Amino acid sequence: MHIIDISVVVIFSLLIIGCGLSFSAAGKNMKSFFSAGGALPWWMSGLSLFMSFFSAGTFVVWGAIAYKHGWVAITIQWTMCLAGVLIALFIAPKWQKTGVLTAAEFIKQRLGLNVQRTYTYIFLLIASFSTGAFLYPVAKIVEVATGLSLEYTVIILGLLILAYTAVGGLWAVIITDILQFVVLTAAVLIVVPLSFEAIGGIENFIDKAPDDFFNLVNDEYSWEFIFAFGLYNLFFIAGNWSYIQRFTSVKTPKDAKKVGGLFAILYLICPVVWMLAPMIYRTMNPNLVGFESEGAYLQMCKEVLPVGMLGLMLAGMVFATSSSINTSLNIAAGVISNDIYKNIKPDASQATLVKVGRIATGVLGLITIIVALLIPLLGGVVEVVMTMAALTGGPLFLPPIWLLFSRYQTGKTILITTIFSLLVNAFFKFVSPWLFDFSLDRAQEMMIGVLFPVLMLTVFELYLRAQRKTPACYENYLVELSQIKPTAELITPEKSADNNHGTRVLGFGILSTGAIMLSLAAIATTGKIEITVISSGIFILGGVLVFKFRSKAVKGLINEQ
């Protein structure tokens, strides 16, 4: 990498970390630290949901599939759009109405403390492992770009991510998510036309592509797999404890709908744009084998981006992929603090609970680093991500969603479904191939993973409905629910000030990003016009946000006096 690229990486990294650390004073209590006071603007929460989900492996996992199989990678990601539509229409508003801080809190209210404890321990065990799968792609990107060892980058990046997540809470995660979205959107809008130019145009790209490169599905990723993976995405986005936080942190059910709707719109458009770079690189260099395909996206960027822009793209990719880690660490720490420690020490002060949350973030982060170092020994990140999806998606994330719509399910039926489904999935993945020389293909593995818990919950639902008896746990839940005030009624001047501060920090970050890109446009040898136009728009947008919300802050101070 050129010294300018390295300098840009350092500058942008400091900008991201600085924006995150600026919220160190925002986490004064549990509600503000883990849900931003329940008053996030819907568009912020929607963009953060997109970045948290999108960045879990888009560049490495889906980029590798796009390089190998072409359009199939886009078809797979379109299932996330359909899931977003269903969530916006039916599920997100229900989560917002629960008024909870975490999904574990909802399970406690609905099913009782003992069920919550068991479910929480299962969640934390799986979350610790899956978060490591998110850190690995970050290190892989840096390894491809710089040549640094994978182990070294895993450790250093893991510690950097911990720094601003542990200090700033959800506000830090949200603002840095949106900054990454701005940077990566701008960078991709530059990469795509330069990539087409490098290959000699769209027609030349199509001519050089393999014959089946634009098929919607293939033998490995069949329509059966697409259907099952679509169900998995529905369960994962609507039931993952990290993403539920995005629906419960906004003011109204209507805002929660908008969060899901924005996610769906972005996943309709973005996969087509994002996947073009590794697909084009396949026609330029078809010789990547094994784990090398995981670096196809960045290899294309190295081919076409001018000096400095590669550094900005790299930094954006690193922190975007890190977004999933931030989200998972924040919610897992919230569960430990709010749903485990608080039950042990019910008289603990808000300051103590926040401190416990920050310590928990640090411990979980260290576990994440260890797991990430083990990914190559487990078959690579594509294999690990797909396996985790099939094993845990339905059993862990469907039951809480089902509870939003059913009054009949009990703690016993939910735990039996979760534990038995996990055991069945693990049997077919690990035991059956070894004991009986029988294994499932990718589609069958995913189908059983998502449909078996659906079948179990359906059987329990029909049986319990036939009893025509509402369980006591649901009656108790209705009493608690009736005492919860709508979040919109709880918005205080302090929370409004947090929103203004958050938007000003975001504006400053966007303004600074625009300035960095304008500086790079001045020295660019290729793509000068594209970089200048896009960076000017970013600079103006940042300036407007800073000016508008600084004015609001000044007016607020005048009114207070």
TrEMBL record:
The chain crosses the membrane at residues 6-27, 39-65, 71-92, 118-138, 150-174, 181-202, 222-241, 262-281, 312-336, 356-378, 384-405, 414-434, 446-464, 505-525, 531-549. It is a multi-pass membrane protein. It catalyses: iodide(out) + 2 Na(+)(out) = iodide(in) + 2 Na(+)(in). Its main location: membrane. It comes from the Bacteria. Keywords: Cell membrane, Glycoprotein, Ion transport, Membrane, Sodium, Sodium transport, Symport, Transmembrane, Transmembrane helix, Transport. This is Sodium transporter. It comes from Pseudoalteromonas fuliginea. The lineage of its organism: Bacteria, Pseudomonadati, Pseudomonadota, Gammaproteobacteria, Alteromonadales.
